[in-house]
Model the fold of this input.
Amino acid sequence: MSDTQIDAPGEAGSSSGLGGAGRGRRLLRGWSANLVQMVLGLTQQLLLIPAFLHVWTGDLLAAWLAIYAAGSLVVVADAGLQLRAINRFLAFKACVDCDGRTANFYAAMLRIYLAVIAVLGVLLCAAIYFAPPSTVLGFGAAPTFDAAMLVMTLGMVLTLPANLASGLYRVRGQYGRTVWLQNGALLLGQIAQLATLAMFGSLLAVAIAFVSMQLLFTIFLAAFDAPRMFPFLRRAGRPPSAMPSLRWSAGQFGRALPFAVANVTELALVNVPVLLVSALVPNRVAVAQWGLTRVIASLVRGLCLQVTLPIAAELGHDHAIGDKERLRRLYAHGSVFVTGLACLIVAGLLPFWPDFFALWTHGSIPYDVPLTVTLLLGSAAVAPSLLALGFANHSNRGDLLIRTKGLQLIVFLVLSFVLIPQFGPLGAALAVVASDIFVQFGLLALMIMRQTLRQPLWHVAFLMLMAVVIVMSGWLIGQAIVALVPGSGLVHFIVECTIWLAAVGVLTSPLLSRARRERLRWLIPA
Done:
């Protein structure tokens, strides 16, 4: 339930590219609105881990990572309905009775969401009763694991109506409000997790602390704030008790299917490997090792997705009005920006991640070099395709999405079941990276580039050269710092990172010149 677009991109600035005043402001507002959210994500998945390890053993931490991954997977129950609703809300803007039609559609979709909650709630309870997760995932020794899994999954199912409300906020230019409300819920949830961890120390207590804040956010947003912000929601044309017809409801799911397939695949690549490794790898320490190493690769991917979504919204606007020249330039510049950002982060992580990993886990979890390198380099390689994915979602390419993302999910699952039993966590990493490179980049991204750019092959070659230069330069600088500044501990790690940032800052300082930036932009093949 994470968005990035602040305003509907209907007011395109007159200037071209990322430098246009109106467009630049919208992009900056989109990125800044998610900055706090990304920091809170880092806190949840990185900074809380030492607190958990202070109270729990490695086995209990692995159990919590599996529970958290299962809760994150529950959002697939949205089934693409949020994006379907957003498209309809945007279409209603051209109608005479915009508010009335929006209110009717909102009410009908809300009833569909409530029906989905009821059905999934029953299925979850039955599944956990007849197939206890502690047995299936190998956490029989973890107290309250089954109860915590039920609380996490069922609680996240109950938060689904917030997706519909946040979609309306996005279309009506109030998305920033939902971001800050959710940030408040995430912050309170993290404080509650630490408090319950200190007082009770059980998986169930921490799961309740996390879910309760998300439920409060959903109730406030859907039941109180949305009707106050949009009074027309109170006067929907249908009687409150009327349910949408079965045919109409099925039609909404059918039109949302391509978005659902794309979202399911993205979430599966982040969360399913944790569950598969938990089920297929008997070594519990290896499970925790995989979960912790995967966290940083997922954060790199998540950061790139957050950066691409505001750009994708602008691209979708250009596509809708047929401004091909502006679309082409923005896509080329945005692709380079996202790829450069991912490579720069990976270049900094490669040399210093061993020191951070030792500090992060207090030395209780061993460091795996091949696993880390595979995941980080894969995160850099997939970066250009993330913008293509975002653009496909914003330009109504449902057929392309369902073909490519469906194939990627199948490839990932097949490779996972083949490679994980043989190679353990490294097999899961290879499955994720291979599906990204061969399907998402090799099919989806290249097809979008061929349809959008005049020089797609030259653009890909430019991206590859830039990626190699950035990653190798950053890694070599880091290795030199590690060799020249020996030591260990938190202070040593901070000193290493500070020196690396200073060195990279000096190397990139020529980009502070606007004239140099403009010359570089014109060198980008578009």
Remarks:
- DSSP finds 18 helices and no strands in the chain.
- The two ends are 33 Å apart (CA to CA).
